[in-house]
Amino acid sequence: MTAQAKKLDSADRKALPSHIYDSFIVGAGISGIAAAIRLDQVGYANYKIIEKASRVGGTWRENTYPGCGCDVPSALYSYSFAPSAQWSHLFARQPEILNYLEDVSHKFNINEKIEFETELNKAAWDNERNLWVLDTNKGQFLSRTVVFATGPITEAQIPKLDGLDSFKGEMFHSARWNHDYDLSGKRIAVIGTGASAIQFVPQIQPLAKELFVFQRTAPWVVPKPDMELGDFSKSVIAKLPIIQSTWRKAVAQSLNAINFGLRNPAVLKPVGELFKQVLKSQVKDPELLKAVIPDFTIGCKRLLFANNYYPALQASNTKLIPHGLVKVEGNTVIAANGERHEVDVIIWGTGFEVSHPPIGRRVYNDKGECLNDLWKQSSPEAYLGTNIENVPNAFLVLGPNVLVYDSFIGLAEAQLDYIVDGLQKIKKHNISKLTIKPQVIHAHNERVQKHLKTTVFNAGGCKSYYLDANGRNFAAWPWSLKKLRQRLKSLNIRDYDVTYQTTTNKIDA
User: Fold this and answer.
1) Model confidence over 396-455: pLDDT tens digits?
2) What are the C-alpha distances in Å from 72 to residues 120, 161, 196, 208?
3) 491 within a domain of the structure (yes/no)
4) Which of 74, 133, 271, 281 lies 20 to 30 A from 57 at CA?
5) How would you classify this enzyme at the top EC level (predicted)?
6) Could you give the CA distance from residue 418 to residue 387 in angstroms, rounded to a whole number?
């Protein structure tokens, strides 16, 4: 660590705030809201939340593209402590999910504790005082611990292509949808066929003069078992909470079955053949059918659910181009096979930068090193998706190698069992510095990578966003959700290097 990073000059010290928080939550999306509620429930009051936007919601605030919704049933895509009887469909749409998150935040009095429009610029560990120094656009804060609840899907990804700056038409990413731009009668190029594009393509297809969908790899798109829930259904669910809890359990069991298949790819082969037959019944044109049949095991890439995607591809004004976009010349988009089309607008359905958690650009460990710089040299690693080597008193929600096929809300709640237990132990036992042991995190990740080799993510014959530039699976959890919950039930202090406060260095907030 440099001398500059180790020491603050006298002027800087005078400028530092006097109040020291027990914990600091960065982000007020699904994870940050849940973290604050859990802290309140255990009587942990001296904390602060910052949120860069003017309202809560995270990814459900940012993504407002037409057709945006959840591909996990609403019963499970909600907090276990705050069930809702107001969902209008089995699979909730984006506006309803955002309203739900805002309602929960108000109901549990979280909004009053959030400092909105406050963005974290840098979080650096101060070794001299065992504190986090958090620089934001609203000033500096001090905290004994930090919970980074910024999520893995926050940074929109747009590929760097030759000639892109020569394009004179309209261009935007699905996560930054331009609602002021009228797509009616326009020639539209959609780049990518991931989860977002599957949802918005059917919505914009009727508006377009011509719609060109660029597809590098055909995804698995299976029928969505959705249905509308009218006022009568809502009233029954509200009067009989057992319906909601039974529904939630049934969905959870279904996802457990899917997770079993993901861990045992041989089980998925007949499932894949079944859905290929379903696909053949949906797509009549032989050339289009050939282009949309995936060439990898189902589940290797994210499984997508839709009932209107293939009909949109078969519309007379739509053309699927089974190749990636490689070049732009003025308003002409050029595919990898040389195919050229002139368009008025480009919509990027290219997903997010997920291989390196975006928060890493702003976090510095106890050696003064930027996490993102370290992750450029090697793949990001965490212990139980939560603790990072040489990053003391800090917890990451939905970090590396914690994802299973389940609700992000459910995963966040499971991690918060672990995190809140850790925060309570730090406070109760006067711990000034808690750092995951290097041998613990290394042994854990060796086991994770070993067991991932036989899962569909690694052995299914695809290149997904689960694999980073090094070919390493940085995202998936190789075992069951039940095992993950068991591991996250409580924090084992023996897994950490611990420094306790003494009477001479104890800090009074």
Assistant:
1) 999 999 998 888 999 999 999 999 999 999 999 999 999 999 999 999 999 999 999 999
2) 31, 34, 14, 29
3) yes
4) 133
5) oxidoreductase
6) 11
